[in-house]
Amino acid sequence: MAIKERSLEETPTWAIAVVCFVLLFISILIEYFLHFISHWFKKKHKKALHEALEKVKAELMLLGFISLLLVVLQDPVSQICIPKTVAKTWHPCSHEQEIAKYGKDYVDDGRKILEDFDSTDFYSPRRSLATKGYDKCAAKGKVALVSAYGIHQLHIFIFVLAVFHVLYCIITYALGKTKMKKWKSWERETKTIEYQYANDPERFRFARDTSFGRRHLNIWSKSSFTLWITCFFRQFFGSVTKVDYLTLRHGFIMAHLPAGSAARFDFQKYIQRSLEEDFKVVVGISPLIWCIAVLFLLTNTHGWNSYLWLPFIPLLVILVVGAKLQMIISKLGLRIQDKGYVVKGAPVVEPGDDLFWFGRPRFILFLIHLVLFTNAFQLAFFVWSTYEFTLRNCFHHKTEDIAIRISMGGLIQVLCSYITLPLYALVTQMGTSMRPTIFNDRVANALKKWHHTAKKQTKHGHSGSNTPQSSRPTTPTHGMSPVHLLHNYNHRSLDQQTSFTASPSPPRF
Questions:
Q1: pTM for this structure?
Q2: Inter-residue contact 398 to 305 (CB < 8 Å)
């Protein structure tokens, strides 16, 4: 006999107060923790990470709003009725599995009716379900689109997805930073006398005899097919080597910075700032990625055997991205040889957007973002379905299904965060233009202020030509370098090791 659940008017007020107090206490703790992290980012001048944290909070608010909508619309959605013939299609379980788990009556009728009498005889006999929830469409000979209990289970899935969204953001950033730590020692090496001697600008060498040439100008580089195969496996064994880092650093400086600034420019910190800017994109969830996540839910249908192919799609995408990034480095080496077999000084690579797919370096970031989120989504779905329906259920009832989902989830997360993302952070600097993160936050803010003041001065010059010169705001004249405004910042940060010569106009942001 089913037992009638108590409503709030039948529940002791102290029990309600205790539950509300615990929920409020946990929520306030989380809020203060996020506020502490935000304050710490501001104190450390981590503007990009602070904005990334704000974006994560926005995504969590979106998930909370979705959960709130499910609460409000639970009854209306559960009263949407569809024919039984339609309701029997696209189930995660086979018909035999549903009969074995729920019984033939439940599967055929969509519900199982019992008579329930309250012991006090205060309530009249009513019909209730032996399972959780109640199908109000049964009287019409139909089935609910999603039952009330099904919507409750969606609430739990949204919570699990929110937890995994935060976890994958933390793991992604932590693994990427761990991989890039060794780049600091490479950057320090560029300030030594030994490095200056080894890269003597007056020294002539064959391109293939340089360290960069020996790595990329070999027998495997003569054919596009063999070069792709080599680059595919190279990402697993030293995806970013010292020689690649130093050569790409030299090429970036020669292409974008004034002569003589190589020894003072910190390329590693520039990459770190750029990666933090890209991290703001990675933690967000675009509408397109949400649509792809919904399609993932659609594939968990009996007969599709999605466990045999779905977890491998993100793996294939990230492996192709890693091979493409290695291919770009190799093509930079081939361009050096195309210009001549003899090089003077260190090999100079020539950056260009044409090396990337569709001429868009940011497209690779979209693919990395897509792989990271879909992988986190699949892991969240696996944990949720295990919690709701035990380890072996209709979504993964075979041992190989469970093994594939767990192993692929861990492998893709490590491969994408520890190997591909740092490789992207380095290679994406080989685009045609440099990024605004070439300046640290203080310099960037000063330049933006300079730009705003210059625009204001220009506007006053056109609209109020009769204004006395002494009453106009003091601004730099056209042709003055922004470096004059930044003189006071020269020794405030270790980041400011870049020297710039006078330029006719400030860089655009």
A1: 0.73
A2: no
